[in-house]
Amino acid sequence: MNFFRIFSQEIPSDVTVLAGGVSFSLHKFPLVSKCGYIRKMVSESNDADLSEIQTPDIPGGAEAFELAAKFCYGINFEISIENIALLRCVAEYLEMTEDYAVGNLVARTEAYLSEMALKSLAGAVSVLHLSENLLPLAEKIKLVSRCIDAIAFMACRESQFSMTGRSDTGNEGILSSTMSQPKPIVDWWAEELTILRIDIFQRVLVAMMARGFKQYALGPILMLYAQKSLRGLEIFGKGRKKIELQQEHEKRVVLETIVSLLPRERNVLSVSFLSMLLRAAIYLETTVACRLDLEKRMALQLGQAALDDLLIPSYSFTGDTLFDVDTIQRIMMNYLEYTVEGNRLGYQADGEYVSPPPSDTERVGKLMENYLAEIASDRNLTVSRFIGLAELIPEQSRITEDGMYRAIDIFLKAHPALSDMERKKVCSLMDCQKLSREACAHAAQNDRLPVQTVVQVLYYEQQRLRDVMNGNPMGGDSPALPSKVNLYSTDIHAVSDEISKLKRENEDLKIELVKMKMRLKEIEKSGGRSATGSPMSNTSPSADKPPLPRRSFINSVSKKLGRLYPFVRSEGNSIAKTRARPSKNRRHSIS
Fold this sequence. Notes:
Layout: H1 5-8, E1 15-19, E2 22-26, H2 28-34, H3 36-43, E3 52-54, H4 61-73, H5 84-93, H6 105-115, H7 121-131, H8 137-140, H9 143-169, H10 172-180, H11 190-193, H12 198-210, H13 218-229, H14 245-261, H15 271-284, H16 288-300, H17 307-310, H18 325-340, H19 360-375, H20 383-390, H21 402-414, H22 420-427, H23 437-444, H24 451-469, H25 473-476, H26 496-531, H27 551-562, H28 566-569
């Protein structure tokens, strides 16, 4: 191709240059006068009439060589942010230095970089981004390192200026809270860095920290970069991967690098963001170290998590559970380990370790109970995994056992084929003494619970009522009693009728319990006679397995227990109606 017709019309071209797959018909004299590379090719050639010159691996290809040729011919063109990296690299490749001509292309491009391109943060980022396609030559001439250093310097300056401005406008209360728990604001230039390749982006952040940029302030920048670079991953549903292997590898490298750069300070990143990274890490099958790091970070802030943050889909396709239970179990174990051994585990700004605050315990307990209730309906969830996860919930975090009872009830309904022994093991997870009055009334009539558990519920409820009527504050101070009713008021006459009625009901309940004990003893005796060979009818229980009490009797006891709630009935609503509906469409009850 002939791009310089004005010269070729007067003087025929005497050399053809091949650059980037394109042929340029040019003249030796203007090229040799400014290009050391072409001068050497002509002088060292054995052919006196060299007519073809090849430029293998020329940076920027045909576009870059065309600009360099125009410069040799004296054709004006504009040097800009968009082409400065291209020009600087091709000038280096063609050896267009001051040794061959004054004011050559290398000097011109260096002057533009120093005076224009690297004077603004946006310009430096743009030049650095364009240099990514010009490696390794851009690295050799230190164009990449100069851009990184300029970006780091200006980013630190902008960050300090913005922090100073925010401090001047804030009051002392805001400043004190910021000092104790820094929450950096995303600066305007953070979006600029998201166009960089991950390895160059990492080098920029490292250079910024070397200049004094606070590590906790990297959080928002990393969040922006992750959201942009990991966009398109289907990590919120269970399905086969719809991603090419090369793209999967690139995103895996991006994710592992981002995790390695995460700030070590607590509460800088939200739990939702950490959960998103963990989902992506499982989906992309990153290194085990990467996933374990994210699990530990989530454990440190587990008290701030929402239920949706823990509902991580299981990306295995072997008929496993719907949600990744093993990951949540490890997170909970890390949380407990931080709580017990806080000085040895947990991140802090100086690299030391610290346990989560005690106020998180109750929130974590409630969160894990809700998680248990959510996964309990999964038919693939085994008894051992359900019990293993439930046993990790600290007892001191459970003020009442209503949440645990709800999860157990859902699990028993979703797994009707459980043996009696398995149902007993599951029900042993809850403390019947800590059930509320509403939960006791529900459990007393729950056919899915073992008889022993129902009897235990009835016994503790009767004991609780006896303590209340005897005026024992310790016995009556229980989550089973509504806070809105004051049983210890000095105005005894106002509730004397209700107390008398409770006493009569309590006596009836005692009689029913005595009858139940007598019937159980008779059944045991008859079972013993059967074991020694005594004749028994066809309806008698077997020797190795005592029969359950008659269902009608349990129902009668449960109905009498239901009449022992005058304070709830006085509001005009039944126990079932007083249950608060969940805010989301969760499985809060399966009755």
